[in-house]
Amino acid sequence: xxxxxxxxxxxxxxxxxxxxxxxxxxxVLAACIVAYIVVDPAPPRHVILATGQENSAYEEFGRKxxxxxxxxxxxxxxxxxxxxxxxxxxxxxxxxxxxxxxSGSTSEAQAERRGLVSLGSLFTEPVWLFLRxxxxxxxxxxxxxxxxxxxxxxNLGPEGTGVPKLxxxxxxxxxxxxxxxxxxxxxxxxxxxxxxxxxxDGLVFSSAPEAPLIQMLLQTPGIRLFNFRQAEAYTRRxxxxxxxxLPRGIVDLGRDIPAQDFHLIxxxxxxxxxxxxxxxxIDLFVxxxxxxxxxxxxxxxxxxxxxxxxxxxPVAREAAKYYRDGPPFLQRYLSFWLANLFDRLWxxxxxxxxxxxxxxxxxxxxxxxxxxxxxxxxxxxxxxxEQALENAKxxxxxxxxxxxxxxxxxxxxxxxxxxxxxxxxxxxxxLRSHINFxxxxxxxxxxxxxxx
Length: 452
Fold this sequence. Notes:
By secondary structure, the protein is α/β, with parallel strands linked by helices. Helices cover 47% and strands 13% of the residues. α1 (14-39) packs across α12, α2 (57-70) packs across α9 (279-293) and α13 (397-415) runs antiparallel to α14 (425-449). The radius of gyration is 42 Å and the shape is rod-shaped. It starts with 13 loop residues before the first helix and ends with a helix. Residues 379-406 form a coiled coil. The chain crosses the membrane at residues 12-39, 345-369.
């Protein structure tokens, strides 16, 4: 008789173990997926950035943010707006996720109530008051005080820009009423055309010097920049303003433009977001802000911006941590999405710990039950044979005995084909002995009823 090699048998049934583990594994996997998606969702791939008017510094910087974040698969949609006030309202209404907002546009209490957070101040955006050098009669203007604007045609831009509110505060500290000037509300580009055509006497911008219109007007003959000689006093009266100096020759050293230092007053531009902006995106925007605004400029030193200072809006916790500690550890060495994946895995770890420990106590009994159930279910067949034996009538005892013995032979034949791990072989051998016990009982009981 050919002997089966011992390696054909195993102490553990891998198939049964997998079947026993499967429900637990599926449950754990489902919990991990739910935790991964619901508890800490992945950052969105599309963000709306409210910028500013055509040819404004906000619009220029919006394009730069879109370019930088596109490297990490984030689509930034820069939306042209009227300016700071409009941007603030869009954030409040949920029409934008992030926006450029000028300091002084809101208060800390209002920002907290409206669910807004700051990602840091980005740059100073001076108040540029450009005036025609000569009046309508060709006489040269020599202005050194805001009071001298009385009666002039000055464009402040639309209400949504933030400039009208800011300049009215400037007028107020000088004791002027807006009605004492002829104010208009054209957007920057058409207002510049009107200024060059002589239809207005001056216009007011509040913007970074990178704005194309600022660059152009600083070099336009016949257009003069107003010098805020009392700039330091303005910063005392309006604390959200800072005093900055436009150095002589900074525009064009060769042509000595400007020909003198100009003192300017300047709010700061802040990157403001809704408080529900994904934390990973906050890190990404602050990182981009460092790349865009971190260098030297006309009014800033290396590394001065971006900064958690110069803003009345509460700084987001993730942004404050970035300014304090630098980029998250994983983002220094991995791509954004891979770093974000590992950063979110702690949620999965918590889900695993919460489920695996209790479920691991269920798997061993389930495995044992599955193995032993292959044996135990045949005891039901044996019990049915015994019941048939008890009910067998004397007149049919021979037929009953042959039928019961055939049933027992069939049971034994199928039991012999049961595959069971060696660790549970005792149950299989016990079943086979019980089959033989019932067979002997059938023979003895029926023989006793009909002695030879």
